[in-house]
Request: fold
Amino acid sequence: MALLARGELRSILQTEMPNALDTRWDTQATDQPEAHGEGQTVLLDFDAVVKAEALVEVAHFIRDKFGYDLLSNITAVDYLKQGLIEVVYQFYNAAEGGPDLRVRVRIGRSPEECIVPSLTPTWPGADLQEREAYDMYGVVFPGHPNLARIYMWDEFKGFPMRKDFPKTGDKYTHVTGE
Amino acid sequence: MLKTEELQINIGPQHPSTHGVFRMLVTVDGETLVDLKPVFGYLHRNHEQLGEVNTYLQNMPFTDRLDYFNSMVNNHAYARAVETLAGVEVPERAQYIRVIMDELSRILNHATAMGFMLGDMGAWQTALLWGMREREKILDMFEYVSGARMMCNYCRFGGVVRDIDDWFITELKKLMQGLPHYFDDFEGLLLNSEILLARARNIGVLPKELALAYSVTGPVLRGSGVAYDIRKAEPYAVYDRFKFKVPVGTVGDVYDRFLVRIAEMRESYKILEQALEQLPDATGGFINPKVKQQSLKAPAGEAYARVESPKGELGFYLVSDGSGSAYRYKVRAPSFINLSSLADMCKGYSIADVVVILGSIDIVMGEVDR
Amino acid sequence: MTLSHLATEDVFVVERNDADFRAGQGMTKGLGIVFRKFRKALFGKPNSDRADTEGQFNVQYPEERLVLPEAYRNMPILLYDDATGHELCTSCFQCERICPPQVIHITQAKDPATGKPVPAAANFVLEYDTCMSCGYCAEVCPFDAIKMDHDFELSTGNHPELDVNYDRLLRPISYYEAIAPTMWSDVKEQAMKKLQNNIKRRPGAIGRDHGQKVKGGAAVAVAATPVAGAAPAAAAKPRGPVAAIGKNMPEEKVAKLISIRAANAAKRGGGDAAAAPVAEAAPIVETVVDTPAASAAPSGPVAAIGQNMSEDKRAKLEAIRAAKRAQRGE
Reply:
């Protein structure tokens, strides 16, 4: 049980579970900015970017080996220009305190690719957060017991927090009865 | 044995004990609860998208409306997130002022939360009004210093909007004179009250391991016996300079959560005392004058800052693309995530206990639905 | 569980009462405290000190009012100079830009002769219904023209009138000085200096042509010794935001409103249907000049009544008021 510094997990995973790391971002330097939108967005790389299918394994690994047992926050971020959705998992070590450990998954935006295995069976606290990520970003979590919309109503079409969701003029405000 | 039939009941969305517009779809077998499904979204206003449209400064008053009991804490957490992102330094005096406001918020939140919980139990109004009375005194002081009682909008990047003056400090000292009596009275009134003992002991038990798995934070987690307090685990502002203790429970029931909150109020009082003693003079300023508040641009990157809000871990996750507003703005709302444990806590208890257990989590729907 | 980030003396376990025997001791103790407080509240004097935890805490609103702190912010107002009638606003659009809910709409004044912009606002509309009272507009204003009002009694049954325009936003500086003396004295010097500079660049009546500021007249009379509190201040201000409909609204809006009302009245088919809209429309034709009588009237909402009402309604109201006055023994 020990605290990991930023970026340390990446090197550990390289030796311990080389297949888990998402190699697409290996070639980039850790702080190389990528053009995005009007400004610049860094797809930060000093945390571990893991393959979606290896997520559950990695999460268990850091919990059992390093004591990161408190899954605090799940954030989905839509990188429209890169055609990616990034899901960031933040773990804390409840016994040792200290800063968070971030594990990332980067997946495509199309419905076929936008799939991340659910952590709810092990961390039931992920339940509502995964539902929120599904509702707002359309990330599908297989293994989730009740993956339904959480804020929007069930008949709602589209994922409102995605960057390409129209900001003005939606069909729901002008419905005159069908 | 008689054959029983399960029955589905909706509690809420407009029910006085749901603390806002919140619906619970419960399945009961007789009086016993078999299943509970929380239903959200009645207060959803896509706060996170607003945060992506607004500039950093413009978003500050919107954070007031998350957990409207503790707008000071919300401001602090959001200001800290932006300060981390943009690399802004905060003068020491401002850090102390923020700590004072946070701890006052904690006292007023716990006092009213416990009042509401007692209201849910049937000890209607007396305890609540006692909590409200103390809250009112503190809100008056918030109003003096920030201009509003609840929607304070007090923090700015690199400090606070207005310095605290002698009037505030004198009145705060007067207020603190009364606080120990208030805590004693509150404990005397409730601690061994038969209503509380009957309705809270061994109700809604959340064991330690389950509490961690459910990612609950704040008094709920500490009530279950995990001594995890962000003020100790990852000290922010100037919390590492104060001596205070972290109260924990043993069983993890409603009663433990209640006791932890009462104990936390006393600890907050201790922090307030030390903060007033250590408060630096005004020479260092209360705001960093170099920060361009209105046109603040954060370099591309991401930042996560969290504070120990009275309800748990309140965090803001910001991704910047270098422009004047956040590219992604996510709120890690404590009451929302604490709610995920509700179903498990309620199963097996009677339906009348559901509202008590919900009251012991201490939720605010402004934060849950965002 | 090992807790290496916490020293053992930093954690304590709360003490539970797990006794099974209960005979009402806890309840009795609690009731004892309640009765003690109750006695103090009944026979004690009203409580003003923050240190007290006993006694009477209630304030009998609206007869009694708490003193509002200077920093208190409710809705934004615009200031004008008492002496010259010049408005402090120069339409720099800073507040419009910062406003988080985007409820400020400014039109810049133009010199009619040259067509060049003048440092004054031609119109200034603020949607009070959407305003979130954050106070940013007052914070960023470089000319100290926009300030936060202390008047919080804005409830109205008429939604459109919450789009408040220039005439109803304006308050004299003396009003603001009365509600926030130190905050005004901090900025007074620079604000007045900037105003003098701006006046030089304003041709004609631009910058002081918004309605009811009768120079030196009764309309701008302000209570000489203001008590910190909303009530006396409300009586002194030229016109509260709860003024009559149609009185200070843009032309087209008024016309729309009248047509809607006429349509509604026709739908009802009542006897006074035809008369009502005409009677209501009448005051709009008048120029917007605040008569001394109107501003001398007791307070905002009451003053507004009677301006645009049908005759019989007004008579009824007068009767009610007279009865009330008699009741109070005036």
